[in-house]
Amino acid sequence: MRPEMIRRVAVRDLLSTLRDTRTLLGTLLIPLVLIPLLMLGLPLLMSEFIGGQVQERQQVGVIGTLPPALERQLEDGGTSVTDGTGVDLVPLNYQTPEAARSAVQSEQVDAVIRVVEPLPDAASGETATPARLEVYAKLNSLAAQTGALGKVESAVDEYNQAWPPGDWKPPG
Predict the structure, then answer these.
(1) pTM for the whole thing?
(2) Which of 74, 102, 113, 159 has minimal Cβ neighbours within 10 Å of its Cβ?
């Protein structure tokens, strides 16, 4: 094998490859353009879709009585997920879980918080007893999960982490 012959064959093969558009598209366009576009474009598109739910105020129904600190946390929005956009609380007159589910399914509200066992409130001097909330929300889409449900979960988590308040002393 002579070097001149190897060079001629290599140049001929490179030129034929450059003339073949299908090979050129498959080796250059897809890896260099389309893959980065899909890797960066889809997450940006999804964040715009999901982020819109986080920035909007949703209607959340309340069955029972929430402590004022938790109500403020819900209305003002939390610091971890919601970027300061809270929810509008709507008192609901019915008490049953079935009515709460139907209010969410009929889209009367985006979610419902049902107070099963009352939460302690530092202002009233109550002791920290276990409390229980039930949250009803549609989970049929990622946007619904990041909207009202995400805001309620974030606010309740922050309320739990802040309990008991610094100036709170148990009665007695």
Answers:
(1) 0.57
(2) 102
Q: Which residues pair with 133 in a beta bridge?
A: 115
Question: Which is nearest to 70 in space by CA: 155, 166, 164, 168?
Answer: 155
List, for the chain, all residue ranges whose pLDDT scores fall below the cut of 50: 81-82, 168, 170-172
Q: Quick one: 32 exposed, middle or buried, by C-beta within 10 A (0-12, 13-18, 19+)? A: exposed
CA distance 11 to 125: 87
- Measured distance CA(2)–CA(162) in Å, rounded: 81
| Residue 58 and residue 113 in contact, taking contact as beta carbons nearer than 8 Å | no
Q: Which residues contact 46 (CB under 8 A, 6 or more apart)?
A: none
